[in-house]
Amino acid sequence: MTLEIVAVYAISACLLIGTFFTVVGAIGLLRFNDSMTRLHAPTKVSTMGIGALLLASMIHSYVFGEGSLHDLLIMAFLFVTAPISANFIAKVNIHRRSCQMPKPPKADTTWATLNVPEADRDIEETGKA
Amino acid sequence: MSKAFHWLLPHPLLTLLLAVVWTLLQNDVSAGMIVFGVILGVIIPFGTSIWWPDRPSGFRIGKMISYSFLVIWDIFVANVQVAWIVLTRPNDKLRPAWIEVPLDLRQPEAISVLAGTITLTPGTVSADLSDEGHSLLVHALDADDPDAVRDEIKDRYERRLKEIFV
């Protein structure tokens, strides 16, 4: 067993794991029937799916070519930015009342997304201008 | 001396982070690139410090590293659990739930890290904060006991974050 054979097996395993989680994420996006549950599928793809694919790319570049650390940066930026888009989609869902609404919080008066100025309250509650 | 140091480097850790990211972006560890990264790491925090008045004073980097490994492990475990739910659980048996997590953390930076952690671990998405910032709204994909999920978030992540941001 040389290093290259071990590397090939490791790369294949990472690619298979990454593909599996990407496919599962796509299936989840299609088969759930509520906009909030659908949101859970992409968060999974962006962590494990992309993470495993990038790991495969990193092993390949170190064993068969020039090593590159760019993949680490991609992973870091992805982990920092993925929650923000998920948070925005969740906020849009709450605004549009397209999901089951949460109960008001116990500690404060309302959720920040629902806390709109008095003048805009009609638009917020009916969705019509 | 320490005042001058603080004036020049309002964020020593941010300086270090920017230098490391710059070196990684260049993909070339040479003295010139490291020096240029350090120059950027001094200029950027210095130029932006007036927009960040209440930055956290204490930050334990050692605990942050062990916290990162814990989160990566949790992402791994939770991914397998959620993949199992996606592939086997029919839609009508799914029990999505809103969970309200009362927050003990006060710093915005700590709350952001907590919210990001909750979103990155599959199965839970942090959706909103209450208007005064005392509780966090989390959506769970499949929770038969919402209170247990809330207690786990508080005990596993928030307790550790309280030790990181002091």
Fold blueprint:
The complex is a heterodimer of chains A (129) and B (166).
Chain A: H1 3-31, H2 35-38, H3 40-64, H4 70-95, H5 121-126
Helix pairs in contact in A: 1-3, 3-4
Chain B: H1 2-8, H2 12-26, H3 31-48, H4 61-88, E1 97-102, H5 108-120, E2 124-129, E3 135-140, H6 146-164
Antiparallel strand pairs in B: 1-3, 2-3
Helix pairs in contact in B: 2-3, 4-6, 5-6
Describe this protein with a few key phrases.
heterodimer; A: 129 residues; mainly alpha; Helix Hairpins; elongated; B: 166 residues; 2 domains; three-stranded antiparallel β-sheet; 3 strands; 11% strand
User: How many distinct beta strands of chain A?
Assistant: 0
Name the shape of chain A in a single word.
elongated
Count of individual helical segments of chain B: 6
For the largest interface in this structure, which chains are involved and how many residues does each contribute?
A: A-B, 47 and 37 residues
Largest sheet of chain A: none
CATH level-two architecture of chain A: Orthogonal Bundle
Please tally the β strands of chain B and state the result: 3
Coarse structural class of chain B: mainly alpha
* Multimeric status of the protein: heterodimer
What does the model show?
- Chain A is mainly α and 129 residues long.
- Chain A has one domain: Helix Hairpins (Orthogonal Bundle).
- In chain A, helix 1 runs antiparallel to helix 3 and helix 3 packs antiparallel against helix 4.
- The longest helix of chain A has 29 residues.
- The N and C termini of chain A lie far apart (69 Å).
- The mean pLDDT of chain A is 82.
- Chain B is mostly helical and 166 residues long.
- Chain B folds into 2 domains: 50 residues, no CATH class; 104 residues, no CATH class.
- Chain B is 60% helix and 11% strand.
- Chain B has a 3-stranded antiparallel β-sheet with strand order 1-3-2.
- The two termini of chain B are 24 Å apart.
